[in-house]
């Protein structure tokens, strides 16, 4: 193990020569902070010298149950001695002591999650050396008391408040108001009191190394201070908040943190010293201006802590004694931007007029800023268009495509849930789908608040501005449907105790009770819920977003670098189709025809399914033909000149029928109301029929192509509607391009026989209307068996589109709703699964897709291949579909189209 280098130096030696060993590409070894300190030193920026202990050392230390790997402590002691030589100073020296900071730094930034100790090396002797060197006793004692405070808190977990209380006491006694007014004597007394607090609050059994004559004593030995501080930083990798943060941000637990031991520089040495944080551009809106704050005569976290009012970085150059350092900082900004070719975020300290760089990294930014900065940098010649497109995070784009809370308003957060579907909404609370529809019809915006939603809630979900559920996760019914519709949704708001019957919500942990009609605001991008109306700002596809997406299109549609990456949309009404075209969709990848049977058409389809009067059924079917033809005319007209994949009816028929349990209840009610026998008999007959349709496992039951085999009338009616609409539009001078898709095929023969009758209907309509129609017929691949025989099916199909939701269900044998409600969370927690396979495509399911594409393409080279499951809108999955499986397009809901365009371009770039 110890063959690996454990320690990397950065900064200069005693001759001012750079001895840096690391670089910015080494963040898995040196952590982000260490790698970038090395990089800055390497390019000649002023970095206080030091060394970095690797992340791997931390991993070894933690996996061995917090014990040091052999030889590591010796190596650290040697590195420390080396640093002392480089500086010509020694830790703990009573004449001229070296002081260091001990800083954590993981491969990914985890702001505020882990620990840092400053001013290490001070003790009763070395503080005298510091006084002698600086001739500033106040500064020396202040540094010492800060060190004891930080060390006690970070390394030994002593309650920070104890120290703050002591300071408050001291200020009262001294009759001063601010810390800065405490005298050197006051601070010296505080040091003694702090050491006392330390002795009283550290447990001797845990820390025998701190015992002196049977008493706990603050460690005076700098070597011991250093070892304990490093151990604390290593330990902070596994503290609860760090673990939680990693879980939320998808950072693996096994990376470890590096430790940087670095010579202290002091921003608190008087009026020509300062400390600050800054960005090389404005991270909120992307403007090309220096952005940040500084404090004169301050140290470390004072700027961020907000104890004193900071000054804007642009004023730094105007402060007397800081002019030169301020100008130097501006030069460093430019050097960093040119070097990293991106916006950087930095921490600096000025010690008596001299600038020192303490940290840099590529800075986080809002979506708006990300776009502006990327485009500006192309204009400035700093990066290429490809780099600009590669840099914008597709997931972040979502923020821009929906209305958002006005960022300038301070929020009074009522509760939090999961950020299930982005966008913000404000409306009156309603507790049922019917109330949502009724209230919205009166012109009131509503937020539908439910325990969880189900398919019966669809009307209400459509009517609502936003949806909130107290249960269910990011892939619950509410979340999936809301994302599909582009409706903001916050799920799993556990604090909401909903009583739908009483039409009220109690908010646990508060006295608050909300009633129907009360206004709430939800933000589906953050999961925040606020009582009352938060002002919203709306979003549109203009300006910078349009520019980046135009560049993305150029990249993904180009014939260079392999197969182009197309983006289609899942849409089943003209409004969605129109929206998707505005968002840049090239075609419709999935039109779900059964969505056209909802609303007032539910009655017609129910009559068709349940009636045993043949004439009545025929009439219902005729009526369905009429309305569907009209639907397809509208849709195909909107999409004129562009392909539109239409899937034949897919769900089990009972989904169109009443819930038998509800019907049973209403029969019982009618009975007790004394309804007449004839009515009751009719209702009971209806119930019997509905019951007869029920299946014990409908997901694996009579649905998809199986319906075409058993009840061919319904799908063939749809084919007739599609074909008739097409014929009519051609006559009217449009260019309709429907593609008929047969769902849930497992066996080649299912497809062959279904296609035969489809072709017959098409031929009939051609004859009747006297037009020539060219309508491709393809297969929806969503069962593992179909993927295995894809070559065989391909000989009879014009295209394949992968329904990856069902493919995931059937490959895993998971029923999605049950899996997500009952055990996927546990699987994730236990790391049986690395991610939810319904969110990002699982690699084994992806392999089924890849194999089927390969087989299909071999058997039928003119075929095209797409993905229309929800994964088609997930950036990570999109890259895999294009680059691993080799599909031609992904299809997603309208609001995901811009995200998919960007992700598709990034897929293409990654191939290079
Ligand atoms: P975080 O990761 O929480 O930002 P840092 O390791 O960056 O923690 O330390 C926090 C702050 O402490 C820095 O921003 C800087 O102001 C101060 N600091 C750290 N090391 C030194 C040093 N060697 N000299 C002066 N100040 C330091
Ligand atoms: Mg911090
Ligand atoms: Mg920092």
TrEMBL record:
InterPro entries xref list = ATP_grasp_subdomain_1, PEP-util_enz_mobile_dom, PEP_util_AS, PEP_util_C, Phosphohistidine_dom_sf, PPDK_AMP/ATP-bd, Pyruvate_phosphate_dikinase, Pyrv/PenolPyrv_kinase-like_dom
Q: What is its EC number?
A: 2.7.9.1
Is the Nucleotide-binding keyword given for this protein?
yes
This protein's record includes keyword Nucleotide-binding: yes
Question: What is the main EC category here?
Answer: transferase
The record's PROSITE patterns line, in alphabetical order, gives: PEP_ENZYMES_PHOS_SITE
Q: Boundaries of each PEP-utilising enzyme mobile domain copy?
A: 445-527
Q: Which reaction does it catalyse?
A: pyruvate + phosphate + ATP = phosphoenolpyruvate + AMP + diphosphate + H(+)
Q: What start and end residues bound the annotated signal peptide?
A: none
What cofactor does its activity depend on? Answer: Mg(2+)
Task: Give every Pyruvate phosphate dikinase AMP/ATP-binding domain span.
Answer: 29-65, 68-311, 327-380
Keywords linked to the UniProt accession? ATP-binding, Kinase, Magnesium, Metal-binding, Nucleotide-binding, Pyruvate, Transferase
Task: Give the Gene Ontology MF terms in alphabetical order.
Answer: pyruvate, phosphate dikinase activity
The PEP-utilising enzyme C-terminal domain is annotated at: 562-908
The UniProt entry's sequence similarity note says: Belongs to the PEP-utilizing enzyme family.
Q: What PANTHER family does the record tag this protein with?
A: PHOSPHOENOLPYRUVATE DIKINASE-RELATED (PTHR22931), PYRUVATE, PHOSPHATE DIKINASE 1, CHLOROPLASTIC (PTHR22931:SF9)
- What this protein is called in its record is Pyruvate, phosphate dikinase
Gene name?
A: ppdK
């Amino acid at each position: 193990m110890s063959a690996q280098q454990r320690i990397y130096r950065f900064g200069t030696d005693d001759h001012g020569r750079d001895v840096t060993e690391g670089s910015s590409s080494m963040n898995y070894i040196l952590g982000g902070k260490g790698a970038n300190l090395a990089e800055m030193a390497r390019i000649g920026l002023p970095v206080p010298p030091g060394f970095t202990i690797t992340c791997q050392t931390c991993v070894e230390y933690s996996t061995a149950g917090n014990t040091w790997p052999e030889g590591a402590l010796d190596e650290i002691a040697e590195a420390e001695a080396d640093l002392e030589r480089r500086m010509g100073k020694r830790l703990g020296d009573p004449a001229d002591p070296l002081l260091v900071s001990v800083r954590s730094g993981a491969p990914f930034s985890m702001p505020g999650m882990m620990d840092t100790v400053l001013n290490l090396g001070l003790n009763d002797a070395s503080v005298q050396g510091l006084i002698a060197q600086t001739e500033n006793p106040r500064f020396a004692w202040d540094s010492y008391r800060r060190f004891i405070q930080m060390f006690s808190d970070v390394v030994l977990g002593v309650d920070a408040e104890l120290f703050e209380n002591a300071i408050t006491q001291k200020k009262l006694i001294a009759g001063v108001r601010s810390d800065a007014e405490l005298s050197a004597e006051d601070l010296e007394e505080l040091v003694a009191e702090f050491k006392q607090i330390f002795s009283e609050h550290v447990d001797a059994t845990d820390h025998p190394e701190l015992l002196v004559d049977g008493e706990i004593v603050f460690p005076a030995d700098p070597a011991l201070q250093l070892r304990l501080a490093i151990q604390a930083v290593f330990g902070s990798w596994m503290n609860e908040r760090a673990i939680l943060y990693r879980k939320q941000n998808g950072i693996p637990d096994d990376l470890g943190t590096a430790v940087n031991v670095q010579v202290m520089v002091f921003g608190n040495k008087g009026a020509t010293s300062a400390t600050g944080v800054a960005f090389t551009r404005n991270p909120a809106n992307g403007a090309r201006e220096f952005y940040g704050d500084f404090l004169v005569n301050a140290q470390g976290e004072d700027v961020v802590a907000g104890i004193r009012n900071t000054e804007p970085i642009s004023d730094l150059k105007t402060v007397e004694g800081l002019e030169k350092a301020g100008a130097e900082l501006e030069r460093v900004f430019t050097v960093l931007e040119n070097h990293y070719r991106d916006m950087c975020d930095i921490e600096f300290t000025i010690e008596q007029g001299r600038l020192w760089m303490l940290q840099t990294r590529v800075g986080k930014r809002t979506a708006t800023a990300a776009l502006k900065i990327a485009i500006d940098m192309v204009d400035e010649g700093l990066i290429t268009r490809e780099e600009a497109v590669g840099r914008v995070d597709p997931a972040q784009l979502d923020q821009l495509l929906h209305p958002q809370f006005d960022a300038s308003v301070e929020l009074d957060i009522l509760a939090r849930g999961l950020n299930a579907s982005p966008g913000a909404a404000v409306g009156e609370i309603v507790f049922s789908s019917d109330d949502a529809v009724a209230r919205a019809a009166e012109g009131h915006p509503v937020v539908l608040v439910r325990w969880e939603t189900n398919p019966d809630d669809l009307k209400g979900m459509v009517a609502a501005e936003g949806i909130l559920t107290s249960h269910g996760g990011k892939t619950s019914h509410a979340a999936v449907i809301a994302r599909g519709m582009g409706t903001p949704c916050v799920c799993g708001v556990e604090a909401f105790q909903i009583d739908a019957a009483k039409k009220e919500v109690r908010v646990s942990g508060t006295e608050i009770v909300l009633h129907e009609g009360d206004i709430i605001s939800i933000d589906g991008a953050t999961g925040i819920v606020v009582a009352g109306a938060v002002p919203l700002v709306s979003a549109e596809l203009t300006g910078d977003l349009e520019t980046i997406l135009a560049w993305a299109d150029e990249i993904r549609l180009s014939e260079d670098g392999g197969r182009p990456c197309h983006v289609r949309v899942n849409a089943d009404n003209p409004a969605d189709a129109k929206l998707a075209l505005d968002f840049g969709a090239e075609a419709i990848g999935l039109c779900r025809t059964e969505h056209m049977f909802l609303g007032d058409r539910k009655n017609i389809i129910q009559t068709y399914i349940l009636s045993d009067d043949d004439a009545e059924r025929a009439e219902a079917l005729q009526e369905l033909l009429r309305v569907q033809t009209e639907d397809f005319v509208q849709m195909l007209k909107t999409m004129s000149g562009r392909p539109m994949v239409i899937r034949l009816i897919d769900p089990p028929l009972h989904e169109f029928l009443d819930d038998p349990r509800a019907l049973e209840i209403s029969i019982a009610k009618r009975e007790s109301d004394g309804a007449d026998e004839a009515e009751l008999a009719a209702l009971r007959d209806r119930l019997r029929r509905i019951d007869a349709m029920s299946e014990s496992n409908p997901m694996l039951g009579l649905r998809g192509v199986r319906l075409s085999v058993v009840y061919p009338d319904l799908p063939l009616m749809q084919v007739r509607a599609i074909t008739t609409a097409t014929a009519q539009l051609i006559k009217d001078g449009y260019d309709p391009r429907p593609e008929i898709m047969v769902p849930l095929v497992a066996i080649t023969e299912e497809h062959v026989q279904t296609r035969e009758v489809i072709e017959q209907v098409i031929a009939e309509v051609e004859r009747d209307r006297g037009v020539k129609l060219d309508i491709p017929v393809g297969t929806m691949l969503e069962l593992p068996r179909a993927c295995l025989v894809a070559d065989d099916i391909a000989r009879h199909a014009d295209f394949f589109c992968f329904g990856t939701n069902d493919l995931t269900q059937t490959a895993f044998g998971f029923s999605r709703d049950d899996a997500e409600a009952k055990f996927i969370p546990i699987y994730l927690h236990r790391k049986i699964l690395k991610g939810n396979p319904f969110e990002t495509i699982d690699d084994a399911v992806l392999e089924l897709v890849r194999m089927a594409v390969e087989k299909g393409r071999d058997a039928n080279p003119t075929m095209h291949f797409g993905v229309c499951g929800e994964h088609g809108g997930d950036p990570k999955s999109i890259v895999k579909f294009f680059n691993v499986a080799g599909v031609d397009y992904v299809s997603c809901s309208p609001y995901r189209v811009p995200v998919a365009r960007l992700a598709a371009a990034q897929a293409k770039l990654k191939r290079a």
